[in-house]
Amino acid sequence: MAKSETTHARGQHAEELALRYLTAQGLRLLEQNYRCRCGEIDLVMQDRHTLVFVEVRFRSHRSFGGAAASVDARKQRRLINTAHHYLQRHRQTESLCRFDVMAMGAAGDNDIEWLRNAITVTG
Fold first, then answer.
1. Three-state DSSP class for 108?
2. β-pairing, 96-104 with 50-58?
3. Pick from 73, 85, 86: which is nearest to 121 by CA?
């Protein structure tokens, strides 16, 4: 298997783990891998009255800050712009929203960190 295929497979597996984890916490899946010209959101979930845009990050090593640190300012802007697109397309511009990050490491189920409100939107 080529490196990019291996990376893609790991990413898919991480998303599946994140989805199972979040649904076990009571969140409901609305959409997976939402794409538009602005970017992609891995999971769009419902947590009671709040829409949750979830970025799933997997890193096999903790060097350079690990999975959570890989959501840099550029990635945050892309997520915010994609979320705006989602909200407009689904006519939910008045919805309560938050951005969560599911940071995962090589240990799988034992290495999941759920960062609620990981990205703050101002303005």
1. helix
2. parallel
3. 73
Whole-structure pTM value: 0.86
Class of residue 53 by CB neighbours under 10 A (exposed 0-12, middle 13-18, buried 19+): buried
Residue 88 sits at the vertex; the CA angle it makes with 67 and 39, to the nearest 5 degrees, is: 35
Question: Would the CA dihedral through 83, 87, 88, 93 be positive or negative?
Answer: negative
The predicted-structure confidence for 10-28, as pLDDT tens digits, reads as follows 778 889 999 999 999 999 9
Domains and CATH numbers, the chain: 3-119 (3.40.1350.10)
Bigger pLDDT: 123 or 118? 118
First to last CA, the chain: 45
Displacement of CA 44 from its chain's centroid (Å): 8
Strand boundaries in 59-120, DSSP class E: 96-104, 112-119
Asked whether residue 84 carries a pLDDT value surpassing 90, the answer given is yes
Residue type, position 104, single letter: M
Q: Residue 1 — very low, low, confident or very high, per pLDDT cuts 50/70/90?
A: very low
